[in-house]
Specification:
The chain is an alpha+beta fold and 478 residues long. It has a single domain (73-114, 126-462), classed as Outer membrane efflux proteins (OEP). It is built from twelve helices and six strands. A four-stranded antiparallel β-sheet has the order 1-2-3-4, with no helix packed on it. Strands 5-6 form a two-stranded antiparallel ribbon. Helix 4 (69-77) packs across helix 6 (145-211) and helix 10 packs antiparallel against helix 11 (422-456). It is elongated, with a radius of gyration of 39 Å. It starts with a helix and ends with a strand.
Length: 478
Amino acid sequence: MTPRTKLCAAALVALAGLPAAAQDAPVELKASRRLAPSALARELGAARATAAMHPSTQAAAEDSKPLELADAVRRAVARHPSIADAIATLAQQSSGIEVARAGYYPQVKLGMGAGLNNNGAAGARRGNGALASASLSQMLYDFGKVSGAVDQSEAQVRRQQAIVLRQIDAVAQQAAEAVVKAHRYQSLAEIAQEQVKAVEKVLETARLRAKSGLSTKADPLQAESRVESARANLLQVKSLLAQSRERLATLLGAAAPALVAPLPQQLASELRFDQAPDASLLPDVLTAEADRRVAAAQLDVAKAQRYPTLSLDVSANKAMGGVNPGTLERNGFNHTVMLNLSSAIYQGGAMDAQVRSATAAEEAARMRIDAARLVAGDQARSLREQAAGAQARLGVLAERRRSIAEARDLYREQYTLGTRSILDLLNAEQEIHQAAADQEAVLHDLWESRIGYIGATGQGRAFYGLDNTTVQGMELLP
């Protein structure tokens, strides 16, 4: 037998002597490298979602009523799961305050044990059998360890409250932007439909003139080309409108109404760009400020760890059918009352490291506060200038649209009289509808700037009517 054969035989013998679990290890390793979502869902006990119709196929309760901007925002924040997630986390953080405050109250423990004890004295009886025990420990003074933990938990709750506000503002911003976008393509679809009708009228006029011999057959062909182009543009706009409605339906949790109501010009007139917002009320600033409070409380706790803790400890035990190891009496009872002063003398530099870590965290939180204020101010100024530019362009585009409409009417009369070519009339029709589309685009750019300014300055809850209402169980106040 060759050495290689001997080695293989020895390996087989060793493998046969291994436990079954060891032999199955490669199989388990191979199975752990497989990804099966259905099997993973069964193992995790995930609830299978019921087959539900897509929101766009569900009957909307308010389908006949145009969708208002503020109403869409309220419907979105009332059902968005990210807000529910933030609120549930807030409830979890609130429970942490009670956990921290428990350090002020006595800790009571009850227990039962059994064993054997020999105190080593000559002729002494051994304690054995079951032993029932009870103990009570009350912290008397700890140099701020518990109070610091309570302050830290309260600051974490404040931070989560700011996160809830930030999430509500984010969902409100998304819903408002979706409404503005849907209204944009709704308006552009109407303009594109009007363009198709106008070019079709030109085509009809060109055919009549060609039949009567007043123009060549090239005029209807050119008009037909413009009609097809207008129809293609209409289909493209309708596709974009359908996409924007799907996005809106996702936020609303139901099919979007057939029409979006005109954007609220009255509310827009109440929006003031010349007043500097109070940056201290912004959710991002509040979150950073709460982070600073958390770090400050953590620093207090870390410093308090350097000092001792004074506590009152009371314990009692009673032998149940045996000898008490403390009194060496059958069924004996023993108790102690002690004042304990405990302190950690050395922990390998952990306490100093905790102090340095908390100090750095507090400084970082201060920088995040300044950064949040800086970003909010920059966004507000940029959006304000965008809104001012869009407002100025609206006046120019309105005048351009009026002058092109006059030229179109003049070209139409001249083409009928035969003194103007059909290309001039088709170009005029295209120009007037392009001017209308440009005007609508700038108008909605203005609204997007307004929506962005509202979000950047934290005015969303007041602007959309969310103040003094209840959102998913949370009462919102100014």
